[in-house]
User: Fold these one by one.
Assistant:
Number 1:
Amino acid sequence: MNPSAVEILAAILFVVAVFHTFFVKTLRDLALRYPEATLGHNIFHLLGEVEIVFGFWAGVLVVGFALLKSGKEAVRYVDGLNFTEAYFVFVVMSVAGTRPIIDFASRMIGAMARILPMSNAQAFYLMALVLGPLLGSFITEPAAMTVTALILRERFMKAGSSDSLKYATLAILFTNVSIGGVLTSFAAPPVLMVATVWQWDFRHMMVHFGWKAAIAVLVNAALATGIFRKEIATASAENAESPRAFAPFWMSIVHLLFLGLIVATLHYVPFFLFVFLFFLGFTTVTREYQDDLNLKSSLLVAFFLGGLVVLGGLQSWWLAPLIRNLKALPLFLGTAVLTAFTDNAALTFLGAQIPNVTEEFKYALVAGAVAGGGLTVIANAPNPAGFAILSESFGAAGISPGRLFKAALIPVGVAMLCLWLLPGL
């Protein structure tokens, strides 16, 4: 292991960025000590936005890269990275967050909730945290995160909701989306990184991962529903005072067609951007049925993921040897922990580059990566999307990464137990 000066700098800045995410609330509190519209207020407020963190430190890395080597080398490094996921998340968040898509998902969840022998609010909450994340296996995890977070925000995350309910809901949402995408081989980023290399298809995912993940998703959602059953009913009632009309059904179908085209072409940036431009045109001519597109949040999340790609691209010198030397159970546990501090797709990508690994190694690596995906905002690529959507629901202080981590320990523990202890079919 002989890292270059740039790799050492990248590792240091990566650690700094990780610590930065845990102190965003402190930075926002510092911003409040300065009068609004002053330089101090604006700087601390900017640095207190979690979506800025990795993009900011990636910028510092690029400057350092240029100083240590040359500007051309820095540009060549960035140009050689793959930002497809960041582009895709921007587009799919923008489309999935529209009123016709949310209305369609709400109708579907509501229809399933009416079958359950419990109160309307409790059944809807349960089904939102089950169906929403499992849809991630088909419409991709970023889309599932966006849709489910918006539905939960509208029904359960406003007035009347305690911090305990909010953090439990957020932690379960992150965890369930991370494991809910493993029913197929194309929707979860950590699975996508290995599916082609290891020739994992739909049957393989369902037999070895999918049914276990579905059980964990249901258990997590049921636990929260049982613990907060009274508060869920109260929060839902208070947030439902001013119901709005659903968008026309045909609008939802058109939006779903656009979303389907984008998902089907997720590997081809020019094509899904081309489809997205048509979508923007369509929303313009049908604006009376639309809410304002939330392009700002989508761009910020894409910026976050882009920064993670830039910083993460130079971490393999220490991550790869660490992963390679672990046995199955330590690898499973270690990967789940490491996922909290680096994107789980980065871990599985590095694991896929190691030749001649056993089936036990492959399973432990991916299972640990997806199980730990709810621990922090950087643990799974769609998490920043949910973080951005739900942040305002936590008041001026925003989401505390430390409290999120603590709240996620139980649902992550459930996911780990199901993925490791349940036998393969």
Number 2:
Amino acid sequence: MPYRAVPELQIEQRGPVAVLTLNNPEMRNAFSDAMHVGMREVWEHFALDPSVRTIVLTGAGRAFCAGGNIPAMIRDYEDPQHRRETMRSARRLLDAMAECPKPVIAALNGPAVGLGCSVALSCDIVFMAESTYMADTHVSIGLVAGDGGAALWPLLMSLLKAKYYLLTGERIPAADCVELGLANFAVPDAELLDRAIELAERLARQPRQALEETKRALNIHLQRAIQAVAPFALAAESESFCTEDIRKTVENFKKR
């Protein structure tokens, strides 16, 4: 049977390039439970589909990904079993993206926040629209930066800078993301997707085995970081839901 993505994901194939779009613009492409499931499963589909050589990941609407879905976050606070499933899902997503053998190019059309940052930084090459930014706001709302930030950011920038941006939650404009090592290119907004697809097509013309196995070799560094850091970081993030700080955050969300 042909693969059918969840409604929050849209797949368009352009020759050897698959364009995967986070497609819940009303919620700024925040991760619902369904999107968690879909984003775990889609990478195996791409890995096994011989017609797909490279993947471009982008977002619909004004955001790339706002991170956690507020209704799901409230449920994590209220329902320990749902919280455990969310933390396990976050780990499986990190593993699935790290294991995908085909190059993945992120095209950040809008803000990448929280888990959205981790998804972007799990890609192999990152383009950002000049007008946008990244921010990991876990700590600012009372959560441990467990679903990728603590593991991934120190691989890409100095440890001191990773600490500063994760502990403050400060927004990082596109040009600064490039300077820090969180992105490869900041490009005019109107050129973003074309530039990402152009590079994806170029990579698709590279020798398949050499391309994919070089990516696999490089991702061993990423996988080791995930294996070393994620178990503690996600457990600590789960414990964050028992604090007074997150209770205040949840109450503020409910008032909205």
